[in-house]
Design a protein that fits this description.
This protein has one domain. Helices cover 84% and strands 0% of the residues. The protein is built from 3 helices and no strands. It has helices at 2-32, 39-60, 68-91. α2 (39-60) packs across α3 (68-91).
Length: 92
């Protein structure tokens, strides 16, 4: 069981690092009017466990924080993740 926890932690760190970097890159590209990271990619990584880094990067970079539809979708993902974790904790 401890092996799986270690793998989960490694996965969690990697997925959050990736989305943090993608949000940074997207903010930088937005300022330069260059190609942007599609929101679908950002939401996919958020859904796969990157919600802490996505929220942190929204605050730190002030990125996507005026876009109400983005915030609403991100909030739905976070709520789903919280409910999933709560459900999984009842199984243990």
């Amino acid at each position: 069981m401890e092996k799986y926890l270690d793998l989960f932690i490694i996965y969690f760190v990697i997925i959050n690092a990736v989305i943090f970097f993608m949000m940074y890159s997207d903010k930088k590209a937005a300022r330069k009017k260059q190609w942007r990271v599609p929101e679908a990619y950002l939401f996919l990584l958020t859904l796969l466990g990157g919600s802490p880094a996505m929220i942190l990067s929204m605050v730190l970079f002030r990125h996507k924080n005026r876009k109400k539809s983005f915030i609403a979708k991100a909030l739905v993902i976070v709520i789903i993740q919280i409910l999933a974790l709560w459900y999984l904790s009842t199984l243990v």
